[in-house]
Design a protein that fits this description.
Chain A is an all-beta fold. Helices cover 3% and strands 67% of the residues of chain A. The chains are: A mainly beta (141), B alpha+beta (145).
């Protein structure tokens, strides 16, 4: 399970969207005794139609997530991860818009957490699903 | 030694992260939580205007204006909201892309929405979205005159 907060800026309209995403995933990789992790990083949302001024309805909803991580692991792991999420519509289909393409998010993150099974090098991937909620919309300019 | 270095890096990262979170929570606490304007578009059907009345029609001639009728309700009736109109050739499927897309502003007062495109003879499905939420789907036939 994870709880992620994104601070997304709509550069065209000048709004900051604070988005909470909760999700679950399954892990494949080197043995891990991860006891929890915190992470921070950057995200870029692709495929948002340029003619929509209020994108809150596009940011909220469910996603299919995939991510990979490589890290140094000696009881405490510091890892670099790359994530990829495909936005789904309310019928569970990938969200596509003519001219904008498929809507998806790419992310880079740096994470830290205690690990009970040290491997020196940690390699892993995650697959899962998540749901996003708009918490705040703040006009910046 | 490596473990100590890793733990030190982790501690710095943890402190920076917690301070950042506290600053963000403090900054956001004074802002009211976002309440979206919810749109519902029920009883969706294709229609045409005949003597100031909107009449349900499922088959249109080539070049004829196609309108979408139904009950448009916004949670805040004073607001306007963007919806997205998509036209698919034949039946929709997850691997099919629309042949027409438009972003349209609507209000609770609107009775009909023009599907502003030319469609050649065939069967089409028109989907209405509010963001990622599918509000409705209707099938329409276009026939040659």
């Amino acid at each position: 399970m994870y709880d992620q907060w994104d601070f997304l800026i709509d550069w065209k309209e000048g709004n900051l969207y604070v988005v909470q995403t909760v999700g679950a995933f399954s892990y494949l990789g080197t043995p891990t005794g991860m006891l929890g992790k915190i992470y921070a990083g950057t995200s870029v949302v692709h495929g948002v139609p340029g003619d929509v001024s209020d994108i809150s309805g596009l940011l909220a909803g469910s996603q299919f997530d995939a991510s990979a991580e490589i890290g140094l692991d000696a009881f405490a792991e510091v890892g670099f991860g790359k994530g990829f999420s495909v936005a789904l519509d309310s019928e569970g289909n990938p969200y596509y818009t003519l001219g904008a393409g498929y809507m998806y998010t790419t992310a880079n993150s740096l994470g830290f957490g205690p690990n009970a099974v040290p491997n020196a090098i940690e390699l892993g991937g995650q697959l899962g699903g998540s749901e996003s909620f708009i918490m705040w919309v703040i006009p910046l300019w | 030694m490596k473990q100590k270095e890793l733990t030190a890096v982790g501690k710095i990262f943890l402190v920076v992260w917690i301070v950042l979170c506290m600053l963000i929570v403090w900054a956001l606490s004074s802002i009211p939580v976002y309440k979206p304007t919810i749109i519902n578009f029920t009883n969706l059907y294709t229609c045409e205007k005949v003597e100031d009345q909107w009449i349900a029609v499922s088959s249109f001639n080539v070049g004829q204006d196609i309108y979408l009728c139904g009950n448009i309700r916004l949670s805040d009736s004073t607001q306007k909201k963007e919806i997205q109109v998509r036209v698919y050739e034949g039946e929709r499927a997850f691997y099919k892309h629309e042949i027409f897309y438009a972003n349209v502003m609507v209000s609770s007062m609107d009775k009909a929405i023009l599907v502003n495109t030319y469609l050649s003879p065939g069967i089409y499905e028109i989907q209405i979205n509010s963001g990622r939420r599918v509000l409705g789907v209707v099938q329409v036939e276009v026939v040659s005159q």
